[in-house]
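**Protein record**
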Amino acid sequence: MIKPAERMKNVKYAIRDIAVLAKQVEKEKKVLYLNIGDPNRFDFDTPDELKNAIINAMKGGHNYYADSQGIKEAVDAIVKHNNNLGIETDESNIILTVGVSEAVNIFVASLIDAGENVLIPSPSYPLYSAYINLYGCVPNFYTLDEGNEWDINVEDIEKRIDDKTKAVVIINPNNPTGGVYDKKALKELVNVAGQHNLIIFSDEIYDEMILEGEMHHIASFSEEVPVITCNGLAKNFLAPGWRTGWMAITDREQRLGTAKDAIMQMGRTRLCTTTPMQFAVKPALEGNRLHREATIKKLRSRRDLTHKRINEIEGLSLVKPKAAFYAFPRINFDIDDKDFVTRLLKEEGVATVHGSGFDMPNHFRIVYLPPEPILNEAFDKIENFVNRMRK
């Protein structure tokens, strides 16, 4: 029998693992899917101007290999957009990627050696620990502050830094919590990163899905510390299946040196991301964003419903999310969170994701994208399940 590569031993991806189980359960009963953050599975749709841009690109014969960094009009649009946000960059510092997922791969593969560690949040999007483990690096978890709306705790981050720490990852707005980080805390993090010669990797894929509060881009006030900012079309522009993202380097003091060359070299190894989809970047970033008001209105209403219903269930509690479309309730009774999620799916037909899959046990993640009648049906089932488990 052929054995898998040893490097795959600790590579896990809880979100899709639950989806496999859900498909099995669906053979027996109806399943309500609250597990995958895909707006287009529900009553959201990609703006027509972006669809038309892709159609026109394909009709125009733009089906060739693009430049490894991306087509010029997309790169220029990203530079202009980022500079308007204070994320200082230029065309030599942009790479179009297959979603932010590929940007994470490029970041770890090109900058982190085996045995070095990367500070990542707990809870965290599971892809980070998956790639870090794949390349023989070490995930170094810092804990987000649930009692302070899931904000970063810079004191906790600093005490976890050692001589093998190479970088710190932030996910802002956060998946799975829906938290949005405080500006003061972000500035403190920049200072700590500068003192310890760390790179900051900032995943900002939900930065235009703010339901309350204010978004702060860490690269906008990082004078000395190199910041790699990632974004894309998937969430803000409701185009998840297009897999079009980008990474932008801000390095005002030119500290990356040959490390930047390594990033670009890694980008060249996969030729390019899909060419036709890149033609949607300019109309997205420079367009009217007419879809956003309706999107935010729906999400805010569904967030409020989720917050209310979960906190009415004895045995669960939820910090109100401020952005994106995720909620991360705490389980306040004695049960393993993976067992909780598995049994909830098998017994009630509600698919969620266990908190330990996001490196934070005793929680589970809910996606509140479905329309409110579906959410209410799901919350009724969750309440019934929790009431049984607590007896």
